[in-house]
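Figure caption, in words: inputs first, then the predicted bound structure.
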Amino acid sequence: MAPSPEQVTAALATVNDPEIRRPITDLDMIKSVDISPDGVVRVGVYLTVAGCPLKDRITRDVTEAVSKVDGVTRVQVELDVMSEEQRKGLQTKLRGERGPEKEIPFAKPGSLTRVFAVASGKGGVGKSSVTVNLAAAMASQGLKVGVVDADIYGHSVPRMLGVGERPTKVEDMIMPPVAHDIKVISVGMFKPEGNSPVVWRGPMLDRALYQFLTDVYWGDLDVLLMDLPPGTGDIAISVAQRLPTAEILVVTTPQQAAAEVAERAGSIAAQTHQQIAGVIENMAWLPCPHCDERIAVFGEGGGQAVADALTRTLGARVPLLGQVPIDMRLREGGDEGKPLVLTDPDAPAAAELRRIAAGLSKKSTSLKGLKLDISPVRR
Ligand SMILES: Nc1ncnc2c1ncn2[C@@H]1O[C@H](COP(=O)(O)OP(=O)(O)OP(=O)(O)O)[C@@H](O)[C@H]1O
Ligand SMILES: [Mg+2]
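Bound structure (magnesium ion present):
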């Protein structure tokens, strides 16, 4: 017996738009459903834009979901594109959830999204690697996670997470690509073709950041991680102004010189009244390939030194959250777009990053809605 339209609709309701991550039936993406007596079901689907990079995925997901309905012998998916008006309608619908005004959802009082800005003084200490691995670990723990690559010059996050495509636009709303269950937005996605370096000054950086935070459809996030460029530049100040509740995660190597610069980057928090979630020491040691020894390639003690110095400056305890050893596979995972915490979760570096991620997300529940008012100690 041929399936009923209700059965088919129920099956379609299980298909999420891969970018907006809501049922396609809620997004007015179903154009038509025709069921013939011999069980052939034809589904018309509206894509948000022509050339939607995810059309194969949607076709596959719809086919798979409808095929499971009793009595269905074959599924045909016909794609169409939303009209201007339909797109506007969808935009209004999605906007409705975040109010009519352009605003940064994470800066609103009562926002439950925990925002972490990953900062360092020196470049190359592993901020981006730490960001993507923490994001992947948190997503695999079931949290809804977004990443903003705010490193306008470096923007290495898309490669490290294996996202290539440009985000889809619905009117002036931007749908972030999703990789490993993480929503990812990077300035690299907005650059013109080619690899021309981006030379942006403070106001433009600020505008780009504001756009990431307002025009991107993030949906409900538990955690937003922002990969900042190294140093204490314009973007760090923009973040502090736009998202005063963002907590800073300081990444350093064990090297004393790196630690001193990291401390300087962290102590901006004292001026901007931001919280510091803690310090992560990366490249903490190299496990000897032949014995159990730890080789202190970059020296020792930098992470703890930064945590102690920031504790003194801020007058509030800044913990050393963890020490991530050097692991070649972590670098390889970054090059291949596959975070180590997913490909080899038991590797010591991955286990440590997962432990740090779990600690950060645990704190998130107990501190939800609670703003600690820490004032800097005057010097
Ligand atoms: N624990 C680690 N073990 C091995 N390689 C690592 C580790 N952490 C980072 N790397 C590698 O070191 C290099 C620099 O790391 P990454 O790009 O994450 O640093 P960054 O602080 O974001 O740099 P930038 O300042 O340029 O943005 C990368 O090639 C990365 O793969
Ligand atoms: Mg980086």
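Residues 364-379 have pLDDT under 50 and may be disordered.
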